[in-house]
Every structure is written in structure tokens, then in C-alpha cells.
Amino acid sequence: MTWRTELERAAARLRDAAGAADRAEELLVRAATRLAADDTDRRRSELAQRLRAAAAGAASGWLGDDLAATDPNTPLWTETPRTGAEAVRVGTALLDDEPVFPALAGLLGKGHLVCDGDAADPRVAGMLQSLLVRITAAHPNLELSLVDGVTLGQVFAPATALVDAGIATTVATDHLALARVLTAAEKRLTELRDVAARGQSIADRPYHLIVVAGLPPEVGKSTRERLAALAHAGPSARCHLVLCGWRDLPHRERLPAIEHATRLECGDEVRLGGLPLPVVLDAPPPPALVRAVFASRAEQRREAGELSVADLVPEVLWTESSRDGLTTVIGRDQAGHTAGGDVEVSFDDATPHWLIGGRTGGGKTVFLLDVLYGLATRYSPDELELYLLDFKEGVSFTEFTPSALDPSWIPHVKAVGVESDREYGVAVLAALRAELTRRAGLMKRAGATRLARLRELRPEVRLPRIVAVVDEFHVLFAGNDRLAGEAVAHLEELARKGRSYGVHLVLASQTISGIEALYSKKDSIFGQFPLRVALPGAKHLLDEGNDAAVESVGQAVINDAGGLKGRNRTCRFPDASSADELLARLRRDLWARRDSDEEPVVFRGFDEQHLDADPRFAALAPTHAPRALLGRAVDVRMSTVGYQFDRSPGRHLAVLGTSIVAADVLTSAAVSLARQHEPGAVEFHVAATAAGAEELARDLVEELKAAGHECRELEPGAVLTAPRARPVYLVWFGADGADGQPGTLRDLLLHGPATGAHVIGWWRGARRFLDDIGGSAGREHVAGVVALNIAANDLAAITGGYERTWDARANRCLVIDRHAGTETLAVPYVRPGRLDEVVETR
Ligand SMILES: Nc1ncnc2c1ncn2[C@@H]1O[C@H](COP(=O)(O)OP(=O)(O)OP(=O)(O)O)[C@@H](O)[C@H]1O
């Protein structure tokens, strides 16, 4: 073959390989006719030059220049090369041992490069290193997976900076790690293909390049077939391979075909694709250049990739309308391990409710904080209200409430439960359900079928969308008791109707059983949560067969179709837990714009409640219907729980249980009653027959006297016989045994109220109390009971013998008013510091 034919063919191959050197052939033909036949050398060099120029057109700058001559300070490209620049230089074509033009292979955007030699061959190693520098310098948005089963990662050692910056994965050196690379690539591929199938463009997604410097020795048939399948499907999903060491071995079955590939054969001579000329592969680039390129790309990526909560909040606060839904940015798309576009999540007709799952420490709290700050900055409190419930130990939502250090709060937040009781959770759900009913009524009357329409018809009515977050929601179902039943009923109703009325639920759980609990309750509930957020360790959250998952904290799979395969989006969200200052600033900005000073109700299950801190105590004044204040109800507003005294028979109060908290309840009752009587109008008799209560009784006497009231301390033996000149409250610490005069006690219970005499007594033993009041026949004589640490069956005996579910626990009491027919779970008022002193026993 003459050199001319060779060059002509070379030009043709060059065009094929690079796809953009089509002018080369044309130039060649023109040159050949113009030049004299005997002017061989000149013609040859001119043709070679033209070929070089043509090759430069196909792969210029970082993709085609001689790296040995490239200045390390040459700027990296900041934009992905245009379509048509798919060629990259791998070496130089030789003619008569002279380098004539760059040898190019079509790679990103075109196909794969497959080489029979591996990185154990220094020629291949040099080429790979050079290729990596070229591609890294030319592509700002690239994902790399590196595999080296022959030099144990040595060939990629210079790329450590890329690994550190998350551009490349850790080099896989064995077949297991290779399998992981393939699994990740397959997932990414499926995800992108699904996006494309939905008609969305994937042109802005990063390329994924898998560079295999040599296959690990254990690689079997299935891995080879997976590689071939990836090669087949890869280019349409921006995935490309550089596959070295791909050669048939003796006594092994033949390798599967790799489609879309340019072949590189590394025998004595190196041949590239159909190029008829031998090729000398690129040598390793100068180390200074490698370092400069990798370090500056890594730096750029780190800067671009840093996601902050600031990226989630709008520049101007509260500009959005929630008429048709709520939408916020949660993070950046990440189909692999590099950053992409913003990912939005919504509460709207398509995704009215969300389900979030992930293991402990999987980032659930941080994800929720990101969402809540994103929403609270976009929508004003007239557009959005928040109810936040957390059933575990933790401080997740206290972030939104006033504290000793920072009096600000997020004005959208109506109620926050931290380590809430299930009862509190059920109360919040019940309140939301009542709101549904209210909205349903409004809609009916207005003739609207959608919230958006109702808002148009009744602009004067405040109708914010409501988002209720329930963290560790499965706690609600624990026990499978009456409360669990109520919780399920509320959740079902809210999930089913919330969409129409603008009430949205976010249920989160860190346990598999949490999700299963919901699933097993009723399929219908589970199906009402179309937006699924799978954090690391999430199980059973997505559809069977949808195995999308993330492993690193800070990432989430977001699926907007009830977990359906093909609707996953992998995203990265910022770490709100390391943005204290920013969050505090946002909170204060939002707070400064509030138009109401109503603080969120904060229910912390472990908090003591103090009478002095209750504004309703401060507001007490003399009245004809005095009410003893006893504690704060476990309800949405944490209402004050009281017990009213009037002249009807049985208006007495018995506090039952061995806990010293009973003494505090008595004190609160007496002190609050004292405020409701003019001094001199009533008398307080205080008796302490329970050991340990003397001091408390004395303190009470002091306090009542200081308030100007008549107050007598009664001695044992004279408690029931002391003369009563005017209406009297007998505050009795330790009434067990009725001071040896149960008959007198019964008489007082029966006739006292008519003359203004009421007993407020602490009985340590429930059975003793029952005996003292004359057994079950005397039940009606004491209408008020505060149950502390007494057993459910004892309480049942006192109140009427039916089955009850009282679950005695520290810092809770059950306030029963038999006349009013009410039973209220409450946190009793205690003396400050009381809970630090006592270890309650049942
Ligand atoms: N997006 C993120 N980027 C970086 N780190 C994060 C991110 N999200 C969470 N983390 C880290 O993980 C830690 C645990 O996160 P988080 O408290 O949200 O987990 P969790 O799932 O709520 O755990 P638990 O349920 O045990 O409270 C955080 O303190 C934070 O350091």
C-alpha cells in the first residue's frame, strides 16, 4: 500500500472515529491533485500537516493537544464540550516511524474504547493517565468510576484528588468492588433512561465514564456480560467505558461483543480502530500537569458542590401563594455522585402526603429541617401552618420554638410536641380532623369543591395549607389499644380527605416496623402517601422491585409515585445541622415579620409544669365558682385542667397515689383556690398526717397566710372535728385512715358542700381511700379524683369497675370529674425541681 493510500484511509478512519474530521479527506484529495507527482516529500509533509489540522478540528485543546507541551496553568474548561467534540486523543499515528497526526477515539457522547492490553503494559498505563487528564480538564461535570484489577490502583494513584472531591469513586481493585461499580452504573442508567422516557431532556446530566485499567482476575462470565450490556445501553444514557484488558484468554469462553467501541490493539505495534497506520500511545503526562489539572478540578467541584441551606431559601421571603399547593427546593439532583439541577418537592394534588424512612442518623431530621425552612421562607403564615410532632427523645423541633437564649420562633408553627405522649399526638390529629370538618362545611356552604376555589370565594377566611409532621409515627400504633385505633382512624381520614382541604401529612420513621405498621394497618393509608423519601437504610418504602437506594447521609431517593419503579430521583440535600447561625438568622427574620404574638404551644413530654408559669393562674380573681387548678392537659393547646367547687354534694377532690407529687397537686389546688376568694371569705384547714409532707403543709400555710387568708394547722386526731365557722377547704396531706373517724369523714363528704366545706385530700392507698369513703357505695361522695401512681384496676374499682386503660407514669395524672363525666390526661403542677428529686415507682 502506498503512503498516499494509507493517508487517505487514515483520513477516512479519522473521520469515522472522531466524527468531525470530515474535511480531512476533502483536503487530501484537493492537495493530491494540485501537487506535482515527483514532489513526494513536500507533498507528504503537507498532507500530514493538513491531517493534523483536521484532527485538531476534531479534538482540540485539552482533548487533543500534546500534553507534554501543555502549560500546567492552562485553564480547565468550564463548559461541557459542544456536541461534535466527542473525540479524544489517545496517541499519535506514525508513518515510517514519524509521528504524523493525533490518533483519536470517539468517547463521551459517542462510544467506548476497548483495549486488549491492560495497565500492566506501560504503554496502556500512560495512555490511561493521559486520557484521564484530558477528559477531566475538558469536562467540568463528569462522574468517574475507576477500576484497576491489575496494578492494585497504582495507575490511578495520581487521581486521588478526584476521589476526595467525589468526582471519582474509590478505585475498585477486586471483582466485588467492580460488581458494585456496575450495580451503581446500572441504577444510574435506569434512572436516566426513565427520565428520558418521560420525555425530559438528559442533555444536562453529567457523563459517567467507567475506566477499567484491567479486569480483576476473578471476574467471571456474568460480570463480563454485565459490562457488555452496559456498553450496549450506556451511550444513550451518557455512560461510557474505557475497557482495558479485554482479550480472549486460552481455555476461556469467548468474550461478549462490546458495541459502540473503538478498538485498541496493543501488540508489538499498536493499532487503533481501522486506522491503517500504527499508533504510539500517549505517554504519561508530566506530573506537574496532572497535579494541577486534578487539584483545580477537585477544587472547582468542591466549590460548586457545596450545598447550603441558603440554596434552599428564596431571596425574598413570603412571596408564594399556597392556593394550588406548596413547593420547595430540597437539594440538587444527583444521578450518581455529582451535582445537578435543583430538586423540588411539593404538597399538592399529586403528592398530598409524604412518607419518609431511613435508619437512625440517616439524616431524617436534617431533611425535615431543610423542608420546613424552605417552606416557611416561601409562604407566609397566612399560607402555611405547621404542626410538628416528635415521639422520640430529641430536640428536632425545638429549633422552631422560643428558648431561654433566643425568644424567637417560626410564626407558622402552631404546636410542637417533643417526646410527646401518644395522647398528645392523637389530640393533634383530632384537632386537624376537626379542621377538616370545618373546611368541609365552609366548602359546602360556599359551593366550592376545591380549596383553591374556596379561597377565591371566601377571601376573608384564613385558609392556610396545613402541614403536620409526625416523626416516629409508629409510636402512635404501639400497643394496638384504643389510642392506636383512634390514631389510625384519624390518620386514615386525614390522609384520604386532606388533599381536598389543604391538610398535608408527613410521616417519618426510622424503623422498618414503623413503615410496616402503617402498611399493615390499612393498605389504603399507605397508598395515600405518594411522595416517598428513602434515606440511607430505608426499607419497604418503595415498591417491590424498585431497589433504588442511597448509602451516604445527605442523599435521598425521592419518588413521587408511591414508590413506583422508574420514578426515582436521587438528590443531595444540605446539612441544616451545621448551619445554626443561618437558621437562627432566618428564624429571627421570620419572627420579626409575624403579625401575632401567639407563641407555638410546645409540649415537651419531660417538662415539669408549674402553676406560677400558667398565665391562667396569674389571671385568677375572686369568683362564685372557684376552680382548683391541677395541671396542664395533654391536648393541643395544653389547656389548664381544673376542678370546680360548688355546693352540690360530692364536690371534693381526692388525689391518689404514693407519689410526693400528690402533695404538690394539693398545694396547687389550695393556692389557686385562695386567689379566687376574698381574704376572710373562706378558711383553709391544713392537716399533715402523712410522714414527709409536714414541711410542704407548713409551706402551704405560710403561703395562704401571706395571701391574707385565715389558715389553721390541724393536729392528728382533730382533723375532722375542728370547728368550722365559715366555708372551709380541708387540705389534708395523708388522709388514709380518715384520722380514725371514717364515719365523720363520710358525713363531711355528704353534707359539707352544702355549707361550703370541701375536702381536698391525698390518699396514698387507693383501696384505703375506697374503704374510707364507705366502699363503692360512697363513690358518689367524692366526684373529683386525680390519679397518680395507682394501678388501673384500683382506679377502676374507685370509679366504677369498668375496664380502664390508665397507664400510670411519671409526670402524668388522670383528672376525673364524675359529675362532668370527664377524664383528662394531664401533666400535674409540681414544685420546681420536683422531677429531679423523685424517681417514681408505680
Ligand atoms: N445533608 C447532610 N449533609 C451532611 N451531613 C448530614 C446531612 N444530613 C445529616 N447529616 C449528618 O448526619 C447526622 C444525623 O442526621 P439526623 O440527625 O438528621 O439523622 P436522623 O435520621 O434524624 O437520626 P435520628 O433519627 O437518630 O435523630 C447529622 O448530625 C449530620 O451531621
TrEMBL record:
Coiled coil: none annotated. This is Cell division protein FtsK. One of its GO terms (molecular function) is ATP binding. PANTHER family: DNA TRANSLOCASE FTSK, SPORULATION PROTEIN RELATED. ATP binds at G358, R359, T360, G361, G362, G363, K364, T365. Keywords: ATP-binding, Cell cycle, Cell division, Nucleotide-binding. The lineage of its organism: Bacteria, Bacillati, Actinomycetota, Actinomycetes, Glycomycetales. It comes from Glycomyces terrestris. It holds the Pfam family FtsK_SpoIIIE. Residues 340-544 form the FtsK domain. GO terms for biological process: cell division.
